[in-house]
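User: Teach me something about this protein's shape.
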Amino acid sequence: MAKKDRLGQGRSAGSAGRGGITPLLPLILFETMRDMDRPAEVLEGEDLSASLPRRFGLNDVVHTQIHRFREEVRRKRMQGEAEIENLIRLVIRRPDADEIFEEAGRRIARLAWEERSNTFRRLVRHLPPSLALRSARRASLRVFRQIAGNGRLQVPRRQVGMRISGSLTARADPGGAACALYAGVLTELMESYTGRGYLLEHPACEARGAQACEWTAVTTGNKE
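Assistant: First, the predicted structure itself:
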C-alpha cells in the first residue's frame, strides 16, 4: 500500500529511494537558512536596510524558493538528485554549513516523529529498549529512503547506526560537511523513539575516500 505521510509523498515503499527525493528536503534546508539568518535582536542604531541583505537566508531568492517548494510539497512532486546537489553546494559555501545541515536533518526527523499518532508515540516510549530501538531503526530507514536518492542503505542489526554507499551528500560536498544532514536525522529519531540522548560518530565518509558513509551512535543516558 502507498504511504501517505508528507515525507513519503504518497509513493510506495518499494519505489522510495530510487532517485526521487521528497521536496521537503529542499524546503526545510531553505527554511533552516532563513531561520538561522534572522537576527536574534536588533541593535540600537542598526541600519537594517544595510545589514539584512547580507544575510543570505533573508533575501528574495530564498523567500521565492521557500514558496516554490511549499507548492512542490503540496503537489507531491519528487525532486531529482541534480537539483538537490546544487542546493547542497550552495549551503556548503556558508561558514555555518554543518549547523544548517544538522538542524535541517533534525527538523525532518521531528516531522516524521510528529506525524505518528499520539497513541503510537506514547506506546513506543514504554516499549522495552530493544523493541524501541528496532522501531527507531525502521523509522530511520523509511526517512533515509526519502532523502538519500540512489544511495544504497543498510541499517546494522546489532548497533545503532546507518551505512550509505553512493551518498548524495558525499557526491555534492567533497568536504563532508553535508553528511551532518543524515547525522541530524538519525540522532533525532533515535532520541525521539527511545527517550535517550545519543552521541553520533561518523567514522567513515565517502567524501574522505571511504567506500561508504557510516554513522554509529552511543547512548548518553535518559533525556527526560
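Now, about its shape. Strands lie at 152-154, 160-165, 196-204, 213-222. DSSP finds nine helices and four strands in the chain. If you'd like, I can walk through any region in more detail.
User: That's plenty for now, thanks!
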